[in-house]
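Dig into this one:

. . .
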Amino acid sequence: MNNNLSSYFLLNPDITFLNFGSFGAAVKPVFEKYQQLQLELEQDPVQFITVKGLQYLKQSREALAAYFNCSADDVVYVTNPSYAVNIIAKSFDLKQGDEILTTDLEYGACDKTWNYYCEKAGAKYVRQPIHFPLTTKEEFVEQFFKGLTPKTKMVFISHITSTTGLRLPVEEICAKAKEHGLLTFVDGAHAPGQIPVNLQTLQADIYTGACHKWMMTAKGSSFLYVKKELQDLFHPLIVSWGYKAAFPSHSQFLDWHQTQGTRDFSAFLTIPTAIEFMQQHNWETISAACRTLVLQNAPTLCNILNAEPLCNFNNDFLVQLYSAGIKTKEPEKLKVLLYDKYKIEIPVMRHDANVFLRYSIQAFNTQKDLDTLFDALKDIMATTNLIER
């Protein structure tokens, strides 16, 4: 790992930070740009919000679109992927008996959103069970589409899951969904900045991603992509000046979702700086080194926790996250202990009846960080009853 990159991060050096997957951390050039933009906003708020800021938003969307290989008019900024999922779920024309097909590995907030709107419509949110260990992409696709019925209207699936940290074969899922005439919605919260995302070839009708995780932008910067022919189907969560605008732009999609009252949208404007930073530092090489560290240590974590691997130890399903099942009845207490006593920031997450411990590897992490985690887990197992053998 390139230790020189550690100096770009503002993280507390006293903490072993193995939780980049939850919120990420802005690098110094991005944070400095963020503060510069906020200062500009406060120095001339009217001009910033109504004139200059709109120009900056356009420039930012153009940079983001080039990064993801799509049209700048097909992406709008949102504060987080959960907000984007709410836009789609609220507007999607669900009828009594319709079904949304997903996995039982999805992010909890998204599950709650879809359940809420499906219950309102008398529709069904189908969480297709996925069995571990995952062996091949083909086997995963076969498992997933066992949930398909004539009532299925949309596929909703994570690009990289949150609690299990697995990269799912969304390319194959989207292609097969197209064969059945289904709309596809990919939750890419963890993907941008961690793996290449090409929206032109992915075939997803709808895609949302977070920039404040692995792209290292300021917090509260995410995006929603919708194919042009579907954009009029999805209404804004907040109806504001962009609806039937007095001076409409060339895109109703942008008007509806971009202009939503007074707010500080400086975080969105840090995205070009983050992209430039990654390009300057050859981030594909950095990510590859992170994946290698993840793979090298995955067997050790499983051995310590006596956990069955969730997948084969290869790059088909694993990227810069690794999760292992952990036997504990008090995951919240364990997480607090790891932070308070051992100064390790790492999530211990409930998912249905299971609990997972997940480490994230970013440019600043080294083998020493993982050794610190492993030593702490061994000590906890030797001195407490928090982790069952």
About this structure: The first strand starts at residue 16 and ends at 17. The CA atoms of residues 155 and 313 lie 27 Å apart. The chain is about 40% helix and 15% strand. The two ends are 32 Å apart (CA to CA).
